Write a sequence for this structure.
């Protein structure tokens, strides 16, 4: 009888050790760091991408730009050098999805206000309407903090090319003139290497939570 209990004790100890090892392996597997994807044109819906780059599978980055912000300052890629940033496309007179998107961007601004690594960038798709003065008034109304968030206007073709060839985010408008766009609700997460790391529905609060989580993941990588 004593021998039986001694053998059982050994078995129990071995069983406990094996169980601990299995639990640890499962825990590590579930919590393993998973980097965010690096989006290429070929990975995105064709309706959002310029036809000249639709089949590009690697090396895609946001192109250079020179636009004017709500304070009349020229904003270029150098203002976002070594920064993670969130980009979107909007227009100040939009009464549908833009107010929701802007409110969500403002909430993100609150979360990153003390984070020197993260900025925001909103491009007007109606630059002929959205003058510097118009953007400034809109910025004041929406609580834009200049050091964190640029609302930009400028050359329409340049904004169109950024939307279609850099951010892979905006639809063509087949019923209007050249360089006219139907903007979408997309927010894009851009890393310090100017690569697209995520797309998010800017009208969806749950998507904003995912964006915040992905920013934290990206900061670990950076």
């Amino acid at each position: 009888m004593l021998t039986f209990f001694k053998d059982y004790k050994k078995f129990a100890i071995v069983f406990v050790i094996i169980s601990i090892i299995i639990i640890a392996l499962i825990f590590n597997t579930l919590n393993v760091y998973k980097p965010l994807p690096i989006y290429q044109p070929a990975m995105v819906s064709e309706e959002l991408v310029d036809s000249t780059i639709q089949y590009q599978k690697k090396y895609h980055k946001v192109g250079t730009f020179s636009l004017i912000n709500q304070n009349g300052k020229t904003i270029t890629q150098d203002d976002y050098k070594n920064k993670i940033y969130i980009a979107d496309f909007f227009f100040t007179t939009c009464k549908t999805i833009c107010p929701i998107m802007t409110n969500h961007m403002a909430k993100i601004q609150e979360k990153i206000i003390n984070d020197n690594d993260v900025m925001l960038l909103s491009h007007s798709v109606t630059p002929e309407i959205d003058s510097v003065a118009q953007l400034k008034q809109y910025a004041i109304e929406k609580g834009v903090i200049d050091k964190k968030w640029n609302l930009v206007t400028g050359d329409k073709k340049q904004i169109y090319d950024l939307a279609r060839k850099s951010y892979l985010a905006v639809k063509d408008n087949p019923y209007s003139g050249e360089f006219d766009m139907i903007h979408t609700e997309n927010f894009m997460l851009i890393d310090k290497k100017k690569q697209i790391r995520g797309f998010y529905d800017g009208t969806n609060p749950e998507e904003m939570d995912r964006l915040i989580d992905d920013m934290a993941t990206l900061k670990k990588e950076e």
Summary: The radius of gyration is 24 Å.
